[in-house]
């Protein structure tokens, strides 16, 4: 089933991108593609990959794409518009070939699949002693493959840097170019919505609390820095919608956000560096405390915190940037 | 820088119509003398004993050879000019315009 | 102190990635325009020193393996440095270090000042990504770092002064994401059918499942993905615009590094992971790549001949040069691979020098977006008579161009020599003939610029400009000089390249020069 | 330090230093121009007489320096020529030209001392690339003769042919290497070249292009008259003589060189008679002189080889002097067309005298350098019992007198003219100094041939001044002169005429383009029927290519994302289909 889904995915996404002249729709298609493949990874138990793909592919890449789109024309230029049989043929050819190629994939859930027989046994049997946390996913994510996770956090950071680069430029160009659509501040509009205010306002503290729970309870249940960061950011975004952007901006000034975004990565990295300085390899948490288990615990905690900080602040920063799009905001003056 | 060079009055002797004839006569005379000198070598030295080819020892061989060859070359040149000479702008006009 | 030194020497492979990776957020924290530059500069030069030390160590002691987090592979992540990646790492870090010297002048002109710290951060992130790919011993790491380098390069390209920089970046983003996704797909499929992500481990486990369709699909996905990032014709659509509209130094940096690392990925997966027995002997990937590479070689050069914008012309020339590298790979002979790999470095040096020379020109004429001139500052007509007003820049361009042609005593010759040898070794003399033909085309496009630089009259008197500042001219000449030095003193590059070729083609280790 | 200097190939000081001249101006430029060849010569003289430097690069065993007797002949005279030409060019304020000239001279010297084929190839191409600037450079003094467009095109043709020579050479080297042969540059073939291996034939062809073999010669007559007034002096000295050296080194005793050489001595004579541009006349005469050397190399005996070497030595000097004097005329008058000149000796007596010394030398009058060197080749031919060759060479000797000995000085300096030259500028001191020095050298060699033979370390005794030789040669020359006088007097001597003389270049300047044009036009009919390509192909192939990859053309226009994605998809499809098909 997932094999079919997968082949369908590739074909649809590529076809959609190639067929659609409307860049906005194409962007959405790509985002959808990323989201679906994240789902696919989830199904295949590669949770960390799925999370990265979801947050990066479906989330931040899309945001980046949209921010770029808003600076350029929404439609690609073209001379003629006609149904292209070549594209159609190609898509179906690739689809068919992929189907053919997926014939001898291991069946879904097959316990004899290489995935389940090679590395997983050790993770299942020994991670409790070697690393500690009962949540094996967290062990794999933050310790066995901590370098990957660091890389993924850096991907998020990179996306933020890219978005900041583009959007600060956007403001400048927006001023120079009066054709830019004037950005209605969403917050201004939303503030009038009574239902929203009444219904959501009480939830915000709980959302933020839940985020902290997911953050620090990642050792024991599903969760961790990525999820926590996103949830926390969602809370803040909701707050902004209700109380207005300026209120949030007072707390999260552009400079503070920059520091937080960078700080999370630096925290993660410095855990690794400290491990190095203490005589271990990079990200070898064993060396962090007097005995390996405590060290692992401490390391995972700090590392997840770093991820959470970066993810949350990146989300908030992106939201603020977009919400403030086209508006001459104080931050532009400040950062200049 | 350029003023120091003497005027070529000395050389004018070479081409003044009055003197050219005299020079030409001198030239002819030297030619005759050279043939005589060649013959002199034959009688007063062994110069001709070691020539590579017999015809080198013919009286005035080199002189005759030079004269004939020269005339031949000049007439060939005249003929060749009729064959390969073209107006000066031959290539210039017909070559395609340089692409921009 | 000695403790510190031992930490550094123990962690050389890791520091290679971690240094720029941590310097990037540091730049964001520091925020000050010049201070961030200093941070970046110190880190890139340290990184360069690091990679040289690393290469030395690899040559003395053989391949290095580093277990991140102390977990042994395949459970943990391994960084594995052998002769091939050591060479690539040296190139990337050297280019970064040299380009960064020129960066402030160029950024001052082309990038708004409040974005400089972010630009340096993106630069360092891109470097991180490239170094990460080149040092990775884990397939998934390759993807993660590919994303880092790609995302940051989109941002850097979008910084270009022209509005079209944005659309170019967008196009690159979409296409690059496609490429990244294919690689991810391939990695996923590999994991599915082998249960491991470690490259060495994959290499050992793949033959066991030989003929597995999943693995075959994975191979196609990875090759296509790598070829997109490599911009091998016909998957090159993103490249000309991206190179043309990016800020000058960014173009110089990306042209010399990004495609080279993609080439590394392609070579690594084809030869090491899938193995010659599978990828070449069984599935004849070389039969597909060779014609494409030859087309790229000729097409790029032919397009460059007609291009009137010098920056774009160089971009097309890059396509052609990428063709050379892939030809070397697709010949599957010792000399050919040596040629391809040595061209990777050689082309990096000379193309970076050429693009920096263009950066000099842009510095003097102003970028098209800031000025009022209708012609872009890199348009051929703007360079008229520049040989007189900017002699050093012009001379650097000419020397770089000679190297591009492959004139003896330049690095270009060294590469082509080995490629031609490789072609003869493979018994494909027609490939050698095409290589020479493409070099002849290179003469045409380089000549076109030389003619304009030296034999055309400057358009107007008031357009006379002075020489570019030494901050940019210096790095340009360092690279051009390097491309001459390594054209004569070929021992280091060729020895490293041939060692790298042996890593890829262990079976042929004895053959060749 | 010593070893470092010793391993430095001779000439590299000039080749590299030449580039540094680009950074100089004014006095410093002048200083560098003269000092570089002097320093380079000093360096050469400081090296041991027999000396080899070996080097391994990229697995190739190279010999960047190989000094021996034969190479040293060229080493000396190339430096003399470089120094004299540098002095001659001192008044020109053109960095590019000077840099190119010195680098050109340096790479030619380095080529001569190259001990292996790869090094030779490198310098072979360097001489091509550097020398072309002497044709392209501006020369305000020679505007009438040097239409910039013409010079540009001639330079381009020159460059293409020169580089082609290098490419052929490289192909030969590669073939030899692929066959498992070494790279050493020594005795590549001898005897029958037609039965030699292909690589040797290719190398022979490459040398032949630069040595201006018949049908490969036209670049010489095409390009040299279009050099700047100083540039051609440099050009005349190096490229062709480097090729002669290469032939002497690699193909001594190759039979084919004898008929080739004879042909080279003969056919230029007839063209020279009718050519109007005096520098082109000199180019033809240069070709003729190369013929003598080729014959000597082809005969291959010790006497013949040393005759060729000695002839090359003397030839470089008197040919340079001829070009110097014509350069001086060009500088003063602005043209070298015989129809525009005449009677210049009154205004330019020094130049005229020097020109006459050179003319006498090239015609081999006794007491000049030509006399003591050229006759060695003739003697060698005679000793080899090649009667026909000997007669034809004698014929050519008279021909040399015609075009270089008489025509040049007569039409430039002596011919009657109504023009008044009193207003023209005389050449600057440095040009005159260079000319006088060269003239003195030509005479000095002629008067003291023994000094030359010893200086060049010749291994055989040869006495040019036998009574018979002197008298015979004088007879030949003076009777020919008498014939000239006689022909002029009876009005049979052809008047000079402005014209373009067709030569082999007609093939590639006229016939091939026209033929190509016709082919393309024909085929366009085919394409009209064939479909859409018709309009693309009408003019020529270039336009057709441009159509596809030109600025903004179909294959190079900015891609839409859709287009790129389709390509990606297609690549994926092809890749998958490919592997599944093989699966």
Question: Secondary-structure map with pairings?
Answer:
The complex is a heterotetramer of chains A (336), B (100), C (513) and D (583).
Chain A: H1 2-19, H2 23-43, H3 47-71, H4 85-101, H5 114-117, H6 120-130, H7 136-144, H8 146-176, H9 186-190, H10 194-200, H11 203-217, H12 225-243, H13 245-251, H14 254-277, H15 292-323, H16 330-335
Helix pairs in contact in A: 1-2, 1-4, 2-3, 3-8, 7-8, 7-15, 8-14, 8-15, 11-12, 12-13, 12-15, 14-15
Chain C: H1 2-10, H2 12-30, H3 33-61, E1 64-68, E2 77-81, H4 83-110, H5 116-135, H6 139-158, H7 164-194, H8 199-205, H9 213-230, H10 239-245, H11 248-273, H12 276-282, H13 285-306, H14 310-331, H15 334-365, H16 386-389, H17 391-405, H18 411-425, H19 429-455, H20 470-488, H21 491-504
Antiparallel strand pairs in C: 1-2
Chain D: H1 2-7, H2 12-20, H3 26-46, E1 51-57, E2 60-67, H4 69-88, H5 95-112, H6 117-136, H7 148-178, H8 198-210, H9 218-223, H10 231-250, H11 257-274, H12 278-299, H13 302-333, H14 349-363, H15 369-383, H16 387-414, H17 429-447, H18 449-455, H19 467-490, E3 500-501, H20 505-530, H21 541-549, H22 561-582
Antiparallel strand pairs in D: 1-2
Helix pairs in contact in D: 2-3, 2-5, 3-4, 3-5, 4-5, 4-10, 4-13, 4-17, 5-6, 5-10, 6-7, 6-10, 7-8, 8-10, 10-12, 10-13, 11-12, 11-16, 12-13, 12-15, 12-16, 13-14, 13-15, 13-17, 14-16, 14-17, 15-16, 15-17, 16-19, 17-18
What can you tell me about this protein's structure?
The complex is a heterotetramer of chains A (336), B (100), C (513) and D (583). Chain A is mainly α. Helices cover 75% and strands 0% of the residues of chain A. The longest helix of chain A is centred in the C-terminal third of the chain and has 32 residues, at 292-323. Helix content of chain B is 64%, strand content 2%. Chain B has one domain. In chain C, 76% of the residues lie in helices and 2% in strands. Chain C has a two-stranded antiparallel ribbon. In chain C, strand 1 and strand 2 (77-81) form a beta hairpin. Mean pLDDT of chain C is 87; it is low at 368-375 and 509-513. Chain D has 583 residues and is mostly helical. Chain D folds into four domains: 1-253, no CATH class; 256-501, no CATH class; 504-549; 550-583. Chain D has a two-stranded antiparallel sheet. In chain D, helix 4 (69-88) packs antiparallel against helix 10. Chains A and C meet through helix 1, helix 2, helix 3, helix 4 and helix 5 of A and helix 2, strand 1, helix 5, helix 6 and helix 7 of C. Strand 1 (85-86) of chain B pairs antiparallel with strand 3 of chain D, so a sheet runs across the interface.
